[in-house]
Amino acid sequence: MDRKDQKNQKDKQDQKEIITRERLIELLNEDLAREYQAIISYVIYSKVLKGAAYMNIAAELEKHAGEELQHALTISEQIDYFGGDPTPKPKPVRTSKKAEEMLRFDLENENETVRNYRDRVRQAEALGEYALAEDLRQILVQEQDHQISLATALGIDVPQEGLGRKSGKATPVAAK
Ligand SMILES: [Fe+2]
Ligand SMILES: [Fe+2]
Questions:
Q1: Which domains does the chain have, with CATH numbers?
Q2: How far does the centroid of ligand 2 lie from the alpha carbon of residue 11, in Å?
Q3: Which of 5, 7, 147, 161 is spaced 20 to 30 Å from 41 by Cα?
Q4: From ligand 1's centre to the CA of 153, what distance in Å?
Q5: First CA to last CA across the chain, in angstroms?
Q6: pLDDT digit string (tens) for 47-99?
C-alpha cells in the first residue's frame, strides 16, 4: 500500500468515525466515565483542601461536583436514547496530599474533557443529532467555567483556543 492509499484509508476511517452511531455511543461512554471521574475528584478535593487560601476554591469545587453529576445524567440519558448501555466505570482518579497538585490534576482533566466535548459537538452535528449537540454545548459552557476557575486558582492562563466567554488573564485567588 503506498502513501496515497494509506491516506485514503485513514480518511475513510475518520469519516466512518463521524458517521457511525456505534462509535458515538462508545465515545459518549468515555465522556460518562470522565464525568464520574470528575464527580469523585470534586467530592474528595472539595473536602480535603485546607487553609484560608483555598476556602473559596473548595466551595467552588463543591459546586462543580453537582454540575458534573448533572452532566453524567444527561450523557447517560443520551447513551440510552442511542440504544447503548451507560458504563458503570469511572476513569481513574488521581489524588495528592498537595493542594496545588490536586488543582492541577483537576485542570488537566477539565482540559481533556473540553477537548473531547468540542469533538463530540462536531460529531453529533455531522450525524444530524442536533438535540445531542445542544446538550453537549450546554455542558461545554460549564466545563469551560470549571477550567477557568481552576486556572484562576492556580494563577495560570487557560488554553484560549475556542474560548468564547470569560477569556483573559486569570487572577490568582489561592496562590501560595
Ligand atoms: Fe462534566
Ligand atoms: Fe468539569
A1: 11-154 (1.20.1260.10)
A2: 32
A3: 161
A4: 19
A5: 57
A6: 999 888 898 999 999 999 999 999 999 999 999 999 999 999 999 999 999 99
Ligand 2 centroid to Cα of residue 4, in Å, is: 40
Choose between 66 and 13: higher pLDDT: 66
CA distance 22 to 151: 35
- 155 alpha carbon to ligand 2 midpoint, in Å? 18
CA of 116 to the centre of ligand 1 (A): 11
Give me ligand 1 centre to Cα 109, in Å: 10
This prediction has a pTM of 0.82
* Inter-CA distances, 60 with 28, 66, 76, 83, 167, Å: 26, 10, 24, 35, 18
Decide: helix, strand or coil at residue 96.
Answer: coil
Q: Model confidence over 103-157: pLDDT tens digits?
A: 999 999 999 999 999 999 999 999 999 999 999 999 999 999 999 999 999 999 8
Give the model's pLDDT for residue 50.
Answer: 86
Q: CA-to-CA distance for 137 and 126, rounded, in angstroms?
A: 14
Q: Which ligand places an atom closest to the C-alpha of 112?
A: 2
pLDDT score at 37: 98
Residue 20's closest CA among 123, 152, 96, 149?
Answer: 123
